[in-house]
Design brief:
CATH architecture of the domain at 113-323: 2-Layer Sandwich
Organism: Fusarium oligoseptatum
Family: Belongs to the NipSnap family.
Pfam families: NIPSNAP
Strand order of the largest sheet: 1-3-2-8-5-7-6-4
Protein name: NIPSNAP domain-containing protein
CATH class of the domain at 113-323: Alpha Beta
Strand content: 15-25%
Structural class: alpha+beta
InterPro entries: Dimeric_a/b-barrel (IPR011008), NIPSNAP (IPR012577), NipSnap_domain (IPR051557)
Shape: globular
Radius of gyration: 22 Å
Largest sheet: 8 strands, antiparallel, barrel
């Protein structure tokens, strides 16, 4: 797992016990609703994006090295030595066999996911005439809930849909397992200001959709970062029974994509819109998105991933997103 401690260290905040280190969420301070017009399309802006991306990745590498060094320093109890032979293997099984048994004991979700975190993805379809009021309301409430120590939750990010189902806002939250989700929901619901927030929110939206997800084990959700640019949320509805095969192919394909594109995270739905997978990417602008996607085809392994995963898809959807001012990932 990629460490997120450097994000907290930079902000001078101590991580909550048992939770992945994420930076605090800033409250909304302006009255402007972000749009594509706020994204600078210049070459200089692209260079700035690339520089921030490079620095961010270098931080992650250093954090990973520190974590691995701590692991190496830990004293692990060695497995009892047994003389290899037919009788020993019959009684205890081979080492490979014991490892396979341990894997088979894990649930289907544990094979796919790291299991330590549960994420929710929330879609709010906002009434067009209420967009600015909605941004003001949520821009104050969400950071307050994300920063409250009694809530076992972090806000990964908040975005407005620019291309796709417009005036739909997307929010991704991170909880410490399902226990953290339930405790956080209970705590937030009993907050003295929740009833008023909920009453106002209901008057601003046409619909709300929530799914509970887990991140794929091979693609940890990014820690907070401010690279700028635009995001693309790609949502895939798979034919039932194909999730494990999808994970197998994408585990290889992501290596190719990471060479030219900046991923935010990948999740599969466990409760809600089942058989759905969400991938979130970040680009300096839409032209860079086009160029990076074309470059992917030049990387060995990517065409094979596409060839093997397309038959697994029932339907797919793409949204271009603009981050909100309070979004930790922007």
């Amino acid at each position: 797992m990629l460490s997120r401690q450097f994000a907290r260290a930079a902000a001078g905040v101590t991580p909550r016990a048992g939770l992945r280190a994420l930076s605090s969420t800033a409250a909304r301070l302006d009255a402007h609703t972000p749009s594509m017009g706020d994204v600078n399309p210049s070459r200089a802006a692209v260079d700035t994006f690339n520089q921030k991306q490079k620095a961010f990745r270098e931080h992650l590498v250093e954090a990973q090295k520190e974590r691995e060094a701590r692991r190496t320093a830990e004293v692990k109890e060695p497995e009892p030595s047994r003389k290899a032979g037919p009788l020993t293997n019959l009684i205890y099984g081979t080492k490979e066999g014991r490892e396979l048994d341990a894997q088979l004991e894990a649930s289907f979700s544990q094979v796919l996911a790291r299991g330590k975190y549960v994420h929710s993805i929330v879609f709010h379809e906002v009434k067009p005439e209420k967009v600015d009021e909605y941004v003001d309301l949520v821009g104050h409430w969400y950071p307050k809930m994300a920063n409250a120590l009694e809530n076992k939750v972090h806000l990964v990010g908040s975005w407005r849909t620019e291309v796709g189902d417009c005036d739909t806002f997307v929010h991704i939250w991170e909880y410490q397992k399902y226990e953290g989700y339930h405790q956080s929901r209970h705590s937030i619901t009993h907050h003295p200001e929740f009833a008023e927030f909920d009453r106002k929110l209901k008057g601003m939206i046409n619909s709300k959709n929530i799914s509970l997800m887990q991140e794929f084990s091979f693609w940890p959700t990014t820690p907070p970062r401010q690279l700028g640019g635009v995001f693309e949320l790609r949502s895939y509805t798979l034919h039932p029974g194909n999730l494990l095969e999808w994970e197998t192919h994408w585990r290889r394909g992501l290596k190719a994509r990471r060479e030219v594109m900046e991923g935010v995270g990948a999740w599969f739905v466990q409760v809600g819109d089942l058989n759905t997978v969400h991938h979130l990417w970040q680009f300096a602008n839409l032209e860079e998105r086009r160029a990076r996607r074309e470059q992917s085809w030049q990387v060995e392994g990517w065409s094979d991933t596409v060839h093997k995963t397309v038959p697994l898809i029932q339907s797919m959807k793409s949204r271009v997103l603009i981050p909100m001012p309070w979004s930790p990932v922007a």
